[in-house]
Amino acid sequence: MKKKIVFVLPKPLSYRFGEYQKISEQMDVEIVMGDDDSAEFGALGDRYKQAFSVQPSRVFSFFGGSLFYQTGTLRRFLSYRYDYFFIQGNIRYLDFWMILLINLLLNRPLLVHGQGIYKKGAVPSTLSRAIYWLVAAAPMKYVAYCAFSKESLVNIGVKPDRITVFKNTLKVASAAHEVVKRNEDEDLGILFVGRVRHGSGLDWLLSNLSEASNTEGLVFHIVGGGAQHAELVKHFGSDNVRFYGPVFDEVEIAEIARKCSLGIYPGNAGLSLLHYAALGLPPLFHDRLELHEGPEFSFFTPELDSFTFEHGNFDSLFSVVVKMSRNQDLLFHAAKNALNTYQDLQRTGFAEDLLDELL
Protein backbone atom coordinates (compact mmCIF):
# COMPACT_ATOMS: atom_id res chain seq x y z
CA MET A 1 0.00 0.00 0.00
CA LYS A 2 1.34 3.41 -0.99
CA LYS A 3 2.23 5.96 1.65
CA LYS A 4 0.07 9.08 1.54
CA ILE A 5 1.33 12.66 1.39
CA VAL A 6 -0.85 15.76 1.64
CA PHE A 7 0.45 18.94 -0.03
CA VAL A 8 -0.89 22.42 0.74
CA LEU A 9 -0.89 24.93 -2.13
CA PRO A 10 -2.35 28.45 -1.86
CA LYS A 11 -2.76 28.39 -5.66
CA PRO A 12 -1.98 25.95 -8.50
CA LEU A 13 1.64 26.03 -9.65
CA SER A 14 2.49 25.00 -13.21
CA TYR A 15 6.10 24.10 -12.45
CA ARG A 16 5.06 21.69 -9.68
CA PHE A 17 2.49 19.75 -11.70
CA GLY A 18 5.00 17.37 -13.27
CA GLU A 19 6.79 16.92 -9.94
CA TYR A 20 3.56 15.83 -8.25
CA GLN A 21 2.90 13.43 -11.12
CA LYS A 22 6.26 11.75 -10.51
CA ILE A 23 5.59 11.54 -6.79
CA SER A 24 2.13 10.06 -7.42
CA GLU A 25 3.75 7.08 -9.17
CA GLN A 26 5.12 5.94 -5.80
CA MET A 27 2.92 7.74 -3.25
CA ASP A 28 -0.75 8.59 -2.84
CA VAL A 29 -0.92 12.36 -3.45
CA GLU A 30 -3.63 14.64 -2.07
CA ILE A 31 -3.57 18.43 -2.47
CA VAL A 32 -5.35 21.10 -0.43
CA MET A 33 -5.38 23.86 -3.03
CA GLY A 34 -6.60 27.42 -3.15
CA ASP A 35 -9.39 27.60 -5.71
CA ASP A 36 -8.14 30.41 -7.95
CA ASP A 37 -10.73 30.90 -10.71
CA SER A 38 -8.83 33.64 -12.55
CA ALA A 39 -8.14 33.21 -16.25
CA GLU A 40 -4.46 32.76 -15.49
CA PHE A 41 -4.93 29.85 -13.07
CA GLY A 42 -8.38 28.42 -13.82
CA ALA A 43 -7.31 26.01 -16.58
CA LEU A 44 -4.29 24.92 -14.56
CA GLY A 45 -6.51 24.26 -11.54
CA ASP A 46 -8.69 22.03 -13.70
CA ARG A 47 -5.61 20.00 -14.72
CA TYR A 48 -4.78 19.49 -11.05
CA LYS A 49 -8.31 18.34 -10.27
CA GLN A 50 -8.23 15.81 -13.10
CA ALA A 51 -4.84 14.38 -12.10
CA PHE A 52 -4.96 14.35 -8.28
CA SER A 53 -7.27 14.17 -5.30
CA VAL A 54 -7.80 17.90 -4.69
CA GLN A 55 -9.50 19.43 -1.66
CA PRO A 56 -10.55 22.96 -2.73
CA SER A 57 -9.99 25.80 -0.30
CA ARG A 58 -9.97 29.59 -0.23
CA VAL A 59 -7.25 32.07 0.69
CA PHE A 60 -8.30 35.21 2.58
CA SER A 61 -6.08 38.23 3.11
CA PHE A 62 -6.02 40.66 6.04
CA PHE A 63 -4.46 44.07 6.74
CA GLY A 64 -3.94 44.93 3.10
CA GLY A 65 -2.35 41.61 2.20
CA SER A 66 0.06 41.49 5.14
CA LEU A 67 -1.50 38.30 6.55
CA PHE A 68 -3.35 35.38 4.95
CA TYR A 69 -5.45 32.42 5.98
CA GLN A 70 -6.10 29.35 3.83
CA THR A 71 -9.24 27.47 4.75
CA GLY A 72 -9.27 23.69 5.06
CA THR A 73 -5.59 23.23 5.88
CA LEU A 74 -5.99 23.03 9.66
CA ARG A 75 -9.00 20.70 9.40
CA ARG A 76 -7.11 18.40 7.04
CA PHE A 77 -4.05 18.38 9.30
CA LEU A 78 -6.11 17.43 12.33
CA SER A 79 -8.08 14.70 10.56
CA TYR A 80 -4.82 12.77 9.99
CA ARG A 81 -5.10 9.73 7.61
CA TYR A 82 -1.78 10.55 5.97
CA ASP A 83 1.87 9.60 6.35
CA TYR A 84 3.27 13.09 5.66
CA PHE A 85 1.80 16.60 5.66
CA PHE A 86 3.69 19.08 3.46
CA ILE A 87 3.03 22.81 3.89
CA GLN A 88 4.65 25.99 2.61
CA GLY A 89 6.63 27.74 5.35
CA ASN A 90 5.20 31.19 4.66
CA ILE A 91 5.20 33.01 8.00
CA ARG A 92 2.48 35.39 6.79
CA TYR A 93 -0.07 32.55 6.70
CA LEU A 94 -2.00 32.18 9.97
CA ASP A 95 -2.98 28.57 9.26
CA PHE A 96 0.72 27.70 8.99
CA TRP A 97 1.36 29.05 12.51
CA MET A 98 -1.68 27.22 13.88
CA ILE A 99 -0.47 23.91 12.45
CA LEU A 100 3.09 24.52 13.67
CA LEU A 101 1.98 25.30 17.23
CA ILE A 102 -0.55 22.46 17.41
CA ASN A 103 2.14 20.09 16.28
CA LEU A 104 4.12 20.92 19.40
CA LEU A 105 1.54 18.68 21.10
CA LEU A 106 0.67 16.23 18.33
CA ASN A 107 4.17 15.67 16.88
CA ARG A 108 2.86 14.51 13.53
CA PRO A 109 5.02 13.95 10.40
CA LEU A 110 5.09 17.57 9.25
CA LEU A 111 7.29 18.87 6.42
CA VAL A 112 7.72 22.65 6.10
CA HIS A 113 9.01 23.91 2.76
CA GLY A 114 10.75 27.28 2.76
CA GLN A 115 13.44 29.58 1.42
CA GLY A 116 15.31 30.07 4.69
CA ILE A 117 16.16 33.50 6.05
CA TYR A 118 18.23 35.00 3.22
CA LYS A 119 15.52 37.58 2.47
CA LYS A 120 16.21 39.23 5.82
CA GLY A 121 19.63 40.41 4.63
CA ALA A 122 23.18 39.61 5.65
CA VAL A 123 22.46 40.48 9.31
CA PRO A 124 18.85 39.49 10.19
CA SER A 125 17.14 41.24 13.08
CA THR A 126 16.84 39.48 16.43
CA LEU A 127 13.08 39.05 15.85
CA SER A 128 13.61 37.52 12.38
CA ARG A 129 16.24 35.16 13.73
CA ALA A 130 13.93 34.09 16.56
CA ILE A 131 10.97 33.46 14.23
CA TYR A 132 12.94 31.34 11.76
CA TRP A 133 14.77 29.49 14.50
CA LEU A 134 11.38 28.53 15.99
CA VAL A 135 10.09 27.42 12.58
CA ALA A 136 13.11 25.22 11.93
CA ALA A 137 13.33 23.91 15.50
CA ALA A 138 9.68 22.85 15.92
CA PRO A 139 8.81 19.12 15.73
CA MET A 140 8.98 18.62 11.99
CA LYS A 141 11.50 18.60 9.16
CA TYR A 142 12.39 21.87 7.46
CA VAL A 143 12.69 21.40 3.71
CA ALA A 144 14.92 24.09 2.20
CA TYR A 145 14.61 25.22 -1.43
CA CYS A 146 18.34 24.77 -2.01
CA ALA A 147 21.68 24.53 -0.23
CA PHE A 148 21.86 28.33 -0.05
CA SER A 149 18.56 28.40 1.88
CA LYS A 150 19.77 25.71 4.27
CA GLU A 151 23.01 27.60 4.89
CA SER A 152 21.07 30.77 5.81
CA LEU A 153 19.37 28.84 8.66
CA VAL A 154 22.50 27.04 9.82
CA ASN A 155 24.14 30.48 10.10
CA ILE A 156 21.60 31.54 12.76
CA GLY A 157 22.12 28.42 14.84
CA VAL A 158 19.64 25.87 13.48
CA LYS A 159 21.11 22.38 13.62
CA PRO A 160 21.89 21.04 10.12
CA ASP A 161 20.20 17.70 10.83
CA ARG A 162 16.87 19.53 11.25
CA ILE A 163 17.04 20.67 7.63
CA THR A 164 16.90 18.74 4.38
CA VAL A 165 17.02 20.06 0.82
CA PHE A 166 14.52 19.30 -1.96
CA LYS A 167 15.87 21.36 -4.85
CA ASN A 168 13.27 23.84 -6.09
CA THR A 169 14.32 23.46 -9.71
CA LEU A 170 12.39 23.68 -12.94
CA LYS A 171 12.06 20.93 -15.51
CA VAL A 172 11.34 22.27 -18.98
CA ALA A 173 10.14 19.66 -21.47
CA SER A 174 11.20 21.79 -24.44
CA ALA A 175 14.62 22.71 -23.03
CA ALA A 176 17.34 23.55 -25.52
CA HIS A 177 19.82 20.85 -26.53
CA GLU A 178 22.44 23.26 -27.80
CA VAL A 179 23.11 26.98 -28.10
CA VAL A 180 23.24 28.73 -31.45
CA LYS A 181 25.60 31.67 -31.78
CA ARG A 182 23.98 34.94 -32.80
CA ASN A 183 25.13 36.56 -36.03
CA GLU A 184 26.63 40.05 -35.79
CA ASP A 185 24.00 41.57 -38.07
CA GLU A 186 21.06 40.08 -36.14
CA ASP A 187 18.94 41.97 -33.62
CA LEU A 188 19.61 41.07 -29.99
CA GLY A 189 16.45 39.33 -28.80
CA ILE A 190 15.84 39.66 -25.06
CA LEU A 191 13.28 37.40 -23.38
CA PHE A 192 11.12 38.01 -20.32
CA VAL A 193 9.04 35.10 -18.97
CA GLY A 194 6.91 35.59 -15.88
CA ARG A 195 3.88 37.29 -14.44
CA VAL A 196 3.43 40.84 -15.70
CA ARG A 197 2.74 42.46 -12.36
CA HIS A 198 4.13 44.82 -9.76
CA GLY A 199 7.47 43.42 -8.69
CA SER A 200 8.40 42.11 -12.13
CA GLY A 201 10.07 45.45 -12.86
CA LEU A 202 8.75 45.50 -16.42
CA ASP A 203 7.03 48.88 -16.01
CA TRP A 204 10.30 50.36 -14.73
CA LEU A 205 12.32 48.76 -17.53
CA LEU A 206 10.01 49.73 -20.38
CA SER A 207 9.41 53.31 -19.20
CA ASN A 208 13.17 53.89 -19.00
CA LEU A 209 13.75 52.08 -22.27
CA SER A 210 11.28 54.36 -24.07
CA GLU A 211 13.46 57.36 -23.15
CA ALA A 212 16.81 55.71 -23.89
CA SER A 213 18.88 56.29 -27.01
CA ASN A 214 20.80 53.66 -28.99
CA THR A 215 18.07 51.03 -28.66
CA GLU A 216 18.21 50.11 -32.33
CA GLY A 217 18.79 46.40 -32.78
CA LEU A 218 17.25 45.46 -29.43
CA VAL A 219 13.98 43.49 -29.45
CA PHE A 220 12.23 42.57 -26.20
CA HIS A 221 9.91 39.53 -26.17
CA ILE A 222 7.49 39.58 -23.21
CA VAL A 223 5.79 36.28 -22.33
CA GLY A 224 3.26 36.28 -19.49
CA GLY A 225 0.00 37.76 -18.29
CA GLY A 226 -0.96 39.64 -15.17
CA ALA A 227 -2.39 42.79 -13.66
CA GLN A 228 -0.13 45.16 -15.62
CA HIS A 229 -0.28 43.40 -18.98
CA ALA A 230 -2.99 45.45 -20.73
CA GLU A 231 -1.55 48.76 -19.53
CA LEU A 232 1.99 47.94 -20.64
CA VAL A 233 0.82 46.72 -24.05
CA LYS A 234 -1.08 49.97 -24.52
CA HIS A 235 1.85 52.22 -23.64
CA PHE A 236 4.88 50.27 -24.85
CA GLY A 237 3.83 47.62 -27.39
CA SER A 238 5.79 48.02 -30.63
CA ASP A 239 7.92 46.12 -33.14
CA ASN A 240 10.78 46.27 -30.63
CA VAL A 241 8.67 45.39 -27.57
CA ARG A 242 6.51 42.39 -28.42
CA PHE A 243 3.90 41.07 -26.00
CA TYR A 244 2.65 37.49 -26.29
CA GLY A 245 0.36 37.32 -23.25
CA PRO A 246 0.16 34.22 -21.02
CA VAL A 247 1.66 31.23 -22.87
CA PHE A 248 1.47 27.81 -21.18
CA ASP A 249 2.65 25.72 -24.14
CA GLU A 250 6.35 25.07 -23.53
CA VAL A 251 7.00 24.40 -27.22
CA GLU A 252 5.56 27.81 -28.11
CA ILE A 253 7.71 29.49 -25.45
CA ALA A 254 10.78 27.69 -26.82
CA GLU A 255 9.99 28.96 -30.32
CA ILE A 256 9.87 32.52 -29.01
CA ALA A 257 13.12 31.95 -27.10
CA ARG A 258 14.90 30.94 -30.30
CA LYS A 259 14.56 34.56 -31.39
CA CYS A 260 16.51 35.61 -28.26
CA SER A 261 20.05 35.42 -26.88
CA LEU A 262 19.52 36.84 -23.38
CA GLY A 263 16.92 36.42 -20.61
CA ILE A 264 16.05 39.37 -18.40
CA TYR A 265 14.23 39.82 -15.10
CA PRO A 266 14.35 43.50 -14.14
CA GLY A 267 12.48 43.02 -10.84
CA ASN A 268 12.57 40.40 -8.11
CA ALA A 269 13.22 37.07 -9.82
CA GLY A 270 12.61 33.44 -8.97
CA LEU A 271 12.27 30.37 -11.18
CA SER A 272 12.28 32.50 -14.34
CA LEU A 273 16.09 32.48 -14.10
CA LEU A 274 16.13 28.70 -14.45
CA HIS A 275 13.61 28.89 -17.28
CA TYR A 276 15.98 31.14 -19.23
CA ALA A 277 18.91 28.78 -18.61
CA ALA A 278 16.82 25.82 -19.80
CA LEU A 279 16.18 27.69 -23.04
CA GLY A 280 19.88 28.35 -23.51
CA LEU A 281 19.75 32.00 -22.42
CA PRO A 282 22.01 33.50 -19.74
CA PRO A 283 19.82 35.40 -17.23
CA LEU A 284 20.30 39.08 -16.34
CA PHE A 285 19.05 40.05 -12.85
CA HIS A 286 19.67 42.69 -10.18
CA ASP A 287 22.28 42.43 -7.43
CA ARG A 288 20.08 42.97 -4.33
CA LEU A 289 19.84 39.25 -3.69
CA GLU A 290 17.73 39.48 -0.52
CA LEU A 291 14.92 41.11 -2.52
CA HIS A 292 14.46 38.29 -5.03
CA GLU A 293 11.32 36.15 -4.89
CA GLY A 294 13.33 32.96 -4.55
CA PRO A 295 16.91 31.79 -4.02
CA GLU A 296 17.32 30.45 -7.57
CA PHE A 297 19.94 33.14 -8.21
CA SER A 298 22.26 31.05 -6.02
CA PHE A 299 22.51 28.43 -8.78
CA PHE A 300 24.30 30.95 -11.02
CA THR A 301 27.77 32.51 -11.15
CA PRO A 302 27.71 36.07 -12.59
CA GLU A 303 29.97 36.62 -15.60
CA LEU A 304 30.17 32.85 -16.12
CA ASP A 305 26.57 31.77 -16.84
CA SER A 306 24.64 34.96 -16.00
CA PHE A 307 24.93 38.72 -15.59
CA THR A 308 23.86 41.20 -12.92
CA PHE A 309 23.10 44.90 -12.81
CA GLU A 310 22.90 47.39 -9.96
CA HIS A 311 19.43 47.28 -8.41
CA GLY A 312 17.25 50.18 -9.51
CA ASN A 313 19.92 51.56 -11.88
CA PHE A 314 18.70 51.52 -15.49
CA ASP A 315 22.05 52.75 -16.81
CA SER A 316 23.72 49.74 -15.20
CA LEU A 317 21.18 47.35 -16.76
CA PHE A 318 21.35 49.00 -20.17
CA SER A 319 25.15 48.96 -20.21
CA VAL A 320 25.09 45.16 -19.79
CA VAL A 321 22.57 44.81 -22.62
CA VAL A 322 24.66 47.02 -24.92
CA LYS A 323 27.80 45.08 -24.00
CA MET A 324 26.05 41.81 -24.90
CA SER A 325 24.82 43.22 -28.20
CA ARG A 326 28.42 43.99 -29.18
CA ASN A 327 30.13 40.86 -27.89
CA GLN A 328 28.70 37.74 -29.47
CA ASP A 329 31.52 35.54 -28.16
CA LEU A 330 30.97 36.51 -24.52
CA LEU A 331 27.21 36.04 -24.86
CA PHE A 332 27.62 32.67 -26.61
CA HIS A 333 29.91 31.27 -23.91
CA ALA A 334 27.62 32.51 -21.13
CA ALA A 335 24.67 30.87 -22.91
CA LYS A 336 26.47 27.52 -23.11
CA ASN A 337 27.38 27.74 -19.43
CA ALA A 338 23.79 28.65 -18.49
CA LEU A 339 22.47 25.59 -20.33
CA ASN A 340 25.09 23.44 -18.58
CA THR A 341 23.98 24.86 -15.22
CA TYR A 342 20.38 23.89 -15.96
CA GLN A 343 21.36 20.41 -17.15
CA ASP A 344 23.47 19.79 -14.03
CA LEU A 345 20.46 20.64 -11.86
CA GLN A 346 18.33 18.06 -13.67
CA ARG A 347 20.25 15.12 -12.23
CA THR A 348 17.84 15.23 -9.30
CA GLY A 349 14.99 17.56 -8.51
CA PHE A 350 12.13 18.15 -6.09
CA ALA A 351 10.35 14.84 -6.75
CA GLU A 352 13.50 12.72 -6.67
CA ASP A 353 14.77 14.39 -3.49
CA LEU A 354 11.41 13.94 -1.76
CA LEU A 355 11.05 10.29 -2.69
CA ASP A 356 14.63 9.57 -1.67
CA GLU A 357 14.03 11.17 1.73
CA LEU A 358 10.62 9.66 2.50
CA LEU A 359 10.66 6.17 1.00
SSE arrangement, N to C: EHEHEEEHEHEHEHEEHEHEHEHEEHHH
Instruction: Report strand order across the widest sheet.
Output: 3-2-1-6-7-8-9
Number of H- or I-type helical stretches: 13
Structural class assignment? alpha/beta
| Radius of gyration over all CA atoms, rounded | 21 Å
Shape: globular
Largest sheet: 7 strands, parallel
Q: What does this protein structure show overall?
A:
The protein has helices at 14-24, 39-51, 73-79, 94-106, 126-137, 147-154, 202-209, 229-236, 250-257, 272-278, 314-326, 328-345, 350-358; strands at residues 4-9, 28-34, 53-57, 59-62, 67-70, 84-88, 110-114, 141-144, 163-165, 188-193, 218-223, 241-245, 262-265, 283-286, 307-309. β1, α1 (14-24) and β2 form a beta-alpha-beta unit. It contains 13 helices and 15 strands. It is α/β, with parallel strands linked by helices and 359 residues long. The two termini are 12 Å apart. The protein has a 7-stranded parallel β-sheet with strand order 3-2-1-6-7-8-9, sandwiched between helices. The chain has a 6-stranded parallel β-sheet with strand order 12-11-10-13-14-15, with helices on both faces. 38% of the residues lie in helices and 20% in strands. The mean pLDDT is 90.
